[in-house]
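Fig. S4 source data, part A: sequence.
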Amino acid sequence: HSKIRELRCAFDRYERDAIAIPNSTGDLLPKLDSALNELDKLSDADQILNLIRRNEMTDLEFKEALNVCPERRKEKKCTRPVLKTIVAFINTEGGILLIGVNDGREITGIDEEIRRYYHGSADRYERDLTTLIENRIGKAKFEFINIRLLEVNGKRILKISCKKSNKEPCFLDKSEFFIRPGNSTVLLEGPDVIEYRDKHFS
């Protein structure tokens, strides 16, 4: 997206100027406000497409589905990878999980899931995920989680935005501790959990 590239270059230029000439920041603020206004004009779909153009990384993960693991080709709930990623984001630096996008960055959508498992009700789909989070991660962690159903290129996807917790660690099923050191989710156990907790939580 050319507009995104232009804004990114502008921000980089403003940052360099602010470092080189600290007293110039007053002149830069109106320009930054203008750039931010341009960002606000981007639709939700534009923002999602911009995310999808990136590769998976510390703060971004794609999952094709919530209910079926495509690689297993079986009628089996595949909620665990989704919940692991949410826990890892909260324990690390936060991040965005997109459900309805495969590893090849193709928008597959969740429409078929909604039709097949929830009788076409997107509300039931979201309630199912909310109940899973409440039961397996904890109701208290909803302050770090925002769930939105969005339409992109005619297909519905679920965007789960997670904030970092500075207060206390997050566990899956009250026992499993995951972090996100790169583009994968890692389980820490034993002394590693204690060491990580002492360094990252107040």
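Fig. S4 source data, part B ends here. The mean pLDDT is 85.
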